[in-house]
Fold this sequence. Notes:
Largest sheet: 4 strands, mixed
Order of helices and strands: EHEEHHHEHHHHHHHHHHEHHHEH
Number of domains: 2
Strand order of the largest sheet: 1-4-3-2
Helix content: 55-70%
Number of helices: 18
Distance between the termini: 48 Å
Number of strands: 6
Structural class: mainly alpha
Mean pLDDT: 92
Radius of gyration: 24 Å
Amino acid sequence: MPPQSGTVLGGKEPCLDAPQLFTWEEIGLRSGKGNSKEERWLVINRKVYDVSKFYWRHPGGRRVISHYSGQDATDAFTAFHKDEDLVKKYLSSLLIGELAPDQPSSEPTKKDMLIQDFRELHSTVKRSGLLKASYPFFAFMFLHAFLIDIASWLVIWYFGKTWAPFLIGVALFTIAQIQYGFLQHDLGHVSVFQKPKWNRLAHHIVAGILKGGPPSWWNHMHNQHHAKPNCFRKDPDLNMHPLLFSLGKPLSEELGKKKKKYMPYQHQHKYFILLAPMTFVVFVQLIIIRFAIQRKKWMEFSFIVFYNIRVCLMFVPLMGFKTFMAFYWLARFLESTWFLWVSQMNHIPMNIDYDKNLDWVSAQLAATCDVDQSLFNDWYTGHLNFQIEHHLFPTMPRHNYWKVAPLVKSLCAKHGIKYQCKPLLTAFADILHTLKESGEHWLDAYIHA
């Protein structure tokens, strides 16, 4: 068996030019947990990297790279880094060795044949140009949101603040904000421009000036979601468990057995409709300010201030401060409702559990599903009706999801993986059905455990 790290043969020091060889057992111990809290190793293409110090300054966020500590991160690395040449300068200084020759390329929890087939698919997708964006498409998406935004002001300016123009203005303002949100989502995934720096610049403009939020907070939260979707303690989208909702059968039963009850979870499918968006509105407004100040993101904080001043100057002279407050918070509530139903229709009905260290494809398919394609569904969801394709290829521009979907379906069929696609209204209903089932699992465990 090849020597492991730190092994000395015959009492002699190993050759300095020879790479250190590691086993998966050794790497698994460097997960940042237990007795190795200060050590974080991960594997990319059989190379072993020590990110114990680097993770604090990882451009994509410290937590997203920490979630792969002690694991193979090859496919996640490929999925997130559009310009691999750009990140090679970071990797070389972190390299400490490689897997021993007798070690498999991935852990036993992962499917080797599926991994190889997906990597071939990824290479095909890249060669076919499906990771390159159509600038006219994104120019149209920006322009239509911008014109709707202006229209919301023009309606109030021309017709006054009576009920009809007030509600029409709210509707238009909400649509503009949600479409800006989808656009900043594209920019955050560096799927609009080929160069990451141009995506980051545009992301600051759209997320900061047009929406009033810090893009670095979005990156910090959303990258974790993509790295480990529906994995409790790693996906921040599950932070609503257990304070507000009990999610997934395993987590719900665990909560019930511990006799914990923060909310009447057996009724969560009823209070989700109002409580989720109301909480989200307040949470987002407070957390983005706290994040910007705590992380000293002063430029992003100035964008938040600028956005709120801009919106006030646009609408307060037309309707007065009190009416504007009603206008603004109603729009925010509607936007949050829209966003939550669209973002959760693909995830809450799927498997929710602790990280099982599955391969990239299995992990994404277990946590995501698709919604039927149509012009309306594509627009209404910002193409997130193709959630499976988006999660498998997070840097792919959304107008290409439909092109890669048949290839993904074929891959799933070959390896016996369930590919779920459903009508939009069914996807919405499944949120409530799943919450109801999770609440029942919690109640049963709470009473009988």
